[in-house]
User: What shape does this take?
Amino acid sequence: MTALSRRGFLGVSTLGLAGCAARRVPLGTAPGVNGAPHLARVRVAPERVIRTIVGLRPYRPGGFVVGAQKLDTKTVIHNYGHGGAGITLSWGTAQLAADEARSTGAGARECAVLGCGVVGLSTARVLQERGYTPTIYAREMPPATTSNVAGGLWEPVSLFDLPRVTPAFRRQFAEAARIAFRRYQSLAGEQYAVRWRALYSLGTEHAHTAPSADNPMSDVESLYPEARQLQTGEHPFDVPFAYRRQTMVIEPAIYLAALIRDFQSAGGKIVIRDFASAADLMGLKEGLLFNCTGLGARALFGDEELTPIRGQLVFLLPQPEVDYCTLGPGGTYMFPRQDGIVLGGSFDRGEWNLDPDPAITERILRENGVLFREMKG
Ligand SMILES: Cc1cc2nc3c(=O)[nH]c(=O)nc-3n(C[C@H](O)[C@H](O)[C@H](O)COP(=O)(O)OP(=O)(O)OC[C@H]3O[C@@H](n4cnc5c(N)ncnc54)[C@H](O)[C@@H]3O)c2cc1C
Assistant: This one.
């Protein structure tokens, strides 16, 4: 999806939830002195920037691929192309990929997972839980993967172009989202750095609307607790439209390190290996392979639909008192993490350049600067 549709997606599915939200104080909304919600102000200033990073979202207009392919003597189960939602969906597509292996009748317990990003690691963990003995083969491992660049919000965005969606993808997507949302809840806490946060979607022109029924995003709306449109006075932002719901932020550096520990303490091995082509895979001793190479699948398996959506993040000094996230207004966002305040909001399709662009940094700082400077209270 484009930045525009990221905003469009933040729709309303509040029926039945609004009353529940009104009775309790949601996360990230400790009451202020006058009963209005108090949110700590993010201090946006160029001198507070600690780093700027760039990554390439592995995007396919038709959505991620989970499916089996016979390659000479090998069975390959693909699990790649998660766009801006690889952290979000990883546990779900991992489970679908493991189910796919079972349905192909591949009996071997020894298998290879290609890739050591969030998708490869989650797939390897699900396989271990099902009694397989996977070895991970990867060119890079954390912290050098795209998965380490992710902002880490649980939200399926930049994942498909609506006209390209098939009913089969839609079914897989809905199932993967449901599985992953549930699995992350079981990891909430400091050990995995998975934290519930209030997410404020802010607009200047119109209120958020629910995704239409033909949009797969409508299948995940009901997952979010305490989702509702806020009235003026219920939030401190100087915008006419605010929509709040609860979701999770997953902090990649801590989370991926924890997954590696889990994988290794269950006996898993990681081998650093660069595969130049699919022919190279024939040299592996395993007959059952899980392709979790992200954007790498384009060259490795010739999937030309796979294309990067370049994204740039600007990190500010950490502010532990900030315990909520914002999306918008405009295309920018803010997530609080232990390793810094993440400011983002760039989506450049087809762009491979990994150098930070000073103009994007300036825009991200400027737009977020205005938002937090004009906060009330
Ligand atoms: C700026 C930005 C913000 C993002 N924010 C979010 C967010 O908030 N929430 C979210 O859910 N997602 C987010 N994402 C998307 C997320 O980062 C990706 O969807 C995810 O990292 C994809 O994971 P992966 O494991 O498929 O790929 P990767 O992390 O890229 O891992 C691929 C692995 O395959 C290996 N590999 C590739 N080719 C080969 C080869 N030929 N031989 C051997 N090994 C190979 C690599 O070395 C690596 O180990 C964001 C991405 C960016 C860039």
Notes: The helical segments are 3-9, 18-23, 86-104, 118-129, 167-185, 252-265, 297-301, 358-373. DSSP finds eight helices and 15 strands in the chain.
